[in-house]
Design a protein that fits this description.
By secondary structure, the chain is of the alpha+beta class. The protein folds into three domains: 136 residues, MutS, DNA mismatch repair protein, domain I (3-Layer(aba) Sandwich); 57 residues, DNA polymerase, domain 1, CATH 1.10.150; 99 residues, Dna Ligase, domain 1 (2-Layer Sandwich). 39% of the residues lie in helices and 25% in strands. The protein contains 13 helices and twelve strands. The strands form three sheets. A five-stranded mixed β-sheet has the order 5-6-1-7-8. The chain has a four-stranded antiparallel β-sheet with strand order 9-12-10-11, with helices on one face. Strands 3-2-4 form a three-stranded mixed β-sheet. The chain is globular. The C terminus is likely disordered. The structure holds magnesium ion. The site of magnesium ion has 5 residues, from strand 1. InterPro entries: DNA/RNA_pol_sf, DNA_pol_Y-fam_lit_finger_sf, DNA_pol_Y-fam_little_finger, DNA_polymerase-Y, DNApol_IV, PolY_HhH_motif, Rev_trsase/Diguanyl_cyclase, UmuC. This is DNA polymerase IV. Monomer.
Length: 343
């Protein structure tokens, strides 16, 4: 099986440079300009100063005083994404787009998979003026690791033997599927790298981390049987948080704000908008209640999301002690675009 993972380099920043060539070779961050704003994408020049995605903007500016901040544009990146990935689809291989700037292609059967990948990379640069990194391997997990190894404009091939060596040295935070919480729990167990993870038994991982645990067991051995599924779509995006029982409204309000912030960031990063907002609570008796509202226009941005979530929460909450609060957005539209014509 030949799986290719393609990942556009510093995508939002690269599109901004395309639209305004004066920004070329400058330290640039795309993201929120207000004090609470976060960096959505940093150009490679900005990354040299330590600026990276998801970093608060004030921190980015203190690391890089010359940083040029460009606000995230609505719709534009989705439009470019559609053009680039629409072009890649024309090669006729199965393609699964996993975010606004990333896709897997199953190029099994290609006469020369590496040459094909290089052609795609060169043509994307020539036709759209955008650089893309490629990773070629025998499964999704390693293809994604490969595309990340030599950015920007990288091209990396990982075969089985090399795959096993690479995984051993991989910090656990780089292993797909390991989120912050899982990473923290693994570190408590003294597990920091792929090699450490190899020491854990399947049953132990299953008991400790459920289904994801068995997946980790496989991944770290270079096994990933996931197929490239062209039609696969994310159904919802959001966060859920459990905490010691409380009825503090101030606490709920603060957690909702944080959820709205995280969810809005993820949606922006992935180029997704959604029409339905859902708030979920779990009471001390483990009763779960949810309330949703669907809007005629997509709910975008942290402020709008918080406003709607807070209204739903207020109509749902009766003053009892809670142990869980969740916020999610569904009825999603990927690569949302306002039909701007500029390319
Ligand atoms: Mg990218």
């Amino acid at each position: 099986m030949d799986i290719l993972h393609v990942d556009m380099d510093a995508f939002f920043a690269s599109v901004e440079i395309l639209l305004n060539p004066a920004l070329k070779n400058k330290p640039l961050a795309v993201g929120g300009r207000n004090p609470s704003g976060i960096v959505t994408t940093a150009s490679y020049e900005a990354r040299k100063y330590g600026v990276h995605s998801a970093m608060p903007m004030f921190m980015a500016k203190s690391l890089c005083p010359n940083l040029i901040v460009v606000p995230t544009r609505k719709g534009v990146y989705g439009e470019v994404s559609r053009k680039v990935f629409g072009y890649l689809e024309h090669y006729g291989y199965k393609m699964e787009q996993v975010s606004i700037d990333e896709a897997y292609l199953d190029i099994t059967g290609a006469k020369d998979p590496a040459a094909l990948a290089k052609t795609m990379q060169r043509e994307v640069a020539r036709r759209f003026g955008l650089s893309m990194s490629c990773g070629l391997s025998y499964n999704k997990f390693l293809a994604k690791i490969a595309s990340d190894m030599d950015k920007p404009a990288g091209f990396t091939v990982i075969d089985e033997a090399r795959g096993r060596e690479i995984i051993k040295d991989l910090p656990i935070s780089k292993i797909h599927g390991i989120g912050k919480k899982t990473a923290a729990r693994l570190r408590e167990l003294g597990i920091h790298t792929g090699a450490d993870l190899l020491l854990l038994e399947r049953d132990f991982l299953k008991e400790s981390f459920g289904k994801m645990g068995t997946e980790l067991y496989d991944r770290v051995r270079g096994v990933d049987l996931r197929l490239v599924e062209p039609g696969r779509k994310r159904k919802s995006i959001g966060t859920e948080e459990t905490f010691p029982e409380t009825r503090s409204r101030a606490f709920f309000k603060e957690r909702l704000m944080e959820s709205a912030r995280q969810t809005a960031f993820l949606m922006e990063k992935k180029g997704i908008v959604g029409y339905t907002v859902t708030v979920k609570i779990k009471t001390r008796d483990f009763d779960t209640h949810t309330k949703s509202k669907t809007f005629p226009e997509p709910v975008e941005g942290e402020k709008a999301l918080y406003r709607e979530a807070k209204a739903l929460f207020d109509s749902l909450y009766g003053g009892e002690k809670l142990r869980l609060l969740g916020l999610s957005v569904s009825a999603l539209e990927e690569n949302y675009s306002r039909q701007l014509r500029f390319l």
